[in-house]
Design goal:
Strands 6-9-7-8-10 form a 5-stranded mixed barrel, surrounded by 4 helices. A 4-stranded mixed sheet has the order 12-13-14-15. It folds into 2 domains: about 270 residues, Spore Coat Polysaccharide Biosynthesis Protein SpsA, Chain A; about 80 residues, no CATH class. Helix 6 packs across helix 9. The protein is an alpha/beta fold and about 375 residues long. It is globular. It is built from 12 helices and 15 strands.
């Protein structure tokens, strides 16, 4: 099933602040087993493993997470687990991988995958990724996997789709930013908008050319770093040049400018993804993902034992302890050895603000 010249590039540098207090700087969300025994990173690697040998995998992360990543995915080449000196968003991260791969394999096709997503149907996931890689390798094409929205979600970007060019393949008209509630309802009702999954497939040649066209200063710095790969100077050049890179997402850097061209000229395509996608962006979304296996009252409880009385719709996380829930509804309660989070499912998106508060207070032990 391995596809020649296909290189999975996994972005694993995020901090997952909305999963505090479990997610911390040295063991962020993607390195946690939130959905089963394997961590989210391990699940991502396992889903992609049939599509490429381990030697073709690349992981872009940060210096704090790299040691744990190396421990969790031992079969990947350690030199291809790259740590950013500072976080610079997705364009520099995947852009650097593209410039490195273009030097090693001019025919390289890159799949960009966040490390913190789940796909319930792994076989279907691989089939669509293979389809996307075939399209991307056939020219200057860019393919994004879009997800059919199930609710008026304000936390995701959207893809406006156009005509169907082949079964299951749509043109991309534009990329939409995270909308307000009213706009999200419009997108949901239109039938022409999909959630932007953040998974893109393109050739290294296409991505590097797009960066040179739309972000020449960024491209020049990334090319300078890539030129030092394999030499004793690489680490020094990376530390010097990478922090000077523009802090920008790949969507802003190249996809939106490309989408501004005519639909046929942009060569942007979307494959609707129907493989049970979820980005598990907060405790509330984790509850929703796991609620199918919840008890009769819809409580998701991770504990040594539990008692429920007039309690419904709660997510309760206290491993190793007995949990009793009496007369409470739609709560999120998460306990660790040094912290306790209490919120509602409706306010779970605000958990990241706690981390900002702790940073301002320099509470390093809780970060």
């Amino acid at each position: 099933m391995s596809q020649a010249n296909f290189y999975p590039v996994i972005l694993a540098g995020g901090r997952g602040t909305r999963f505090w207090p479990v997610s911390r700087r040295r063991r962020a969300k993607q390195l946690l087993a939130l959905d089963g025994k394997q961590t989210m990173l391990q699940q991502t690697v396992a889903r992609l493993a049939p599509l490429a040998p381990a030697r073709r995998f690349w992981v872009i992360t940060n210096q704090e997470l790299r040691p744990e990543i190396l421990r969790q995915v031992r079969r990947l080449p350690p030199k291809q687990v790259l740590a950013e000196p500072v976080g610079r968003n997705t364009a520099p991260a995947v852009g650097l991988a593209a410039f490195l791969l273009l030097r090693a394999d001019p025919a390289a096709v890159i799949g960009m995958f966040p490390a913190d997503q789940v796909a319930a149907d792994a076989a279907r996931f691989r089939k669509l990724v293979q389809q996307a890689a075939t399209i991307a390798g056939a020219g200057e094409n860019v393919v994004v996997l879009g997800v059919k929205p199930t609710r008026p979600e304000t936390g995701y970007g959207y893809i406006e789709t156009g005509e169907q060019v082949a079964p299951g393949i749509l043109r991309v008209r534009s990329f939409k930013e995270k909308p307000d509630a009213a706009r999200a309802r419009e997108f949901l009702q239109s039938g022409q908008h999909l959630w932007n999954s953040g998974m893109f497939v393109w050739s290294a040649r296409t991505l590097t050319a797009a960066l040179r066209e739309h972000r020449p200063a960024l491209a020049a710095r990334l090319e300078k770093i890539a030129a030092a790969w394999g030499t004793a100077q690489f680490a020094r050049v990376l530390r010097r040049e990478y922090p000077r890179c523009e802090n920008i997402s790949v969507d802003y850097a190249v996809l939106e400018p490309r989408a501004a061209k005519s639909e046929t000229a942009s060569k942007l395509y979307c494959i609707p993804a129907d493989f049970g996608w979820n980005d598990l962006g907060s405790w509330a979304s984790l509850y929703e993902y796991q609620a199918g296996g919840a008890g009769v009252h819809g409580n998701v409880i991770q504990a040594a034992g539990s008692f429920e009385l007039d309690a419904a719709g709660n997510y309760l996380h206290a491993p190793g302890k007995f949990v009793a829930a009496v007369g409470v509804k739609d709560l999120v309660v998460v306990e660790t050895a040094d912290a306790l989070l209490i919120t509602t499912r409706g306010r779970a998106q605000d958990v990241g603000k706690i981390v900002k508060h702790l940073e301002a207070k320099k509470s390093k032990k809780l970060l």
